[in-house]
Amino acid sequence: MPRTVSYLIAGVLSFAAGMMQIFGIPTWFMIPVSRIIVTVVTFKQRSETKDKYGIRKDAFSDVMTAWCCTFCALAQHEQQVKQNHVVQQ
């Protein structure tokens, strides 16, 4: 997983935990909100990578991959970046 994305996900989850403690927000509310934020970040990252490397985009497929298998999507992203980095050198 790219380091910046993993830091971002950790930050989102820490923010959610902080909001629960500060404002007394119930866990059942913050978990889905955090999940949606992580999905949006993952989708955006996939979209930018596909634009950068000229890969055909399918918004529905990308959203579903980001939602259903976030870690698979991030691993695929990292593999694509590494593969293209080696080819460009």
Automatic annotation (TrEMBL):
Keyword terms, alphabetized: Membrane, Transmembrane, Transmembrane helix
Database matches in Pfam families: PLAC8
InterPro entries listed in its UniProt record: PLAC_motif_containing
Keyword Transmembrane helix: yes
KW Transmembrane helix (keyword) present: yes
Transmembrane segments: 7-31
Similarity comment: family membership: Belongs to the cornifelin family.
Name used for this protein in its record: Oidioi.mRNA.OKI2018_I69.chr2.g6840.t1.cds
Organism: Oikopleura dioica (Tunicate)
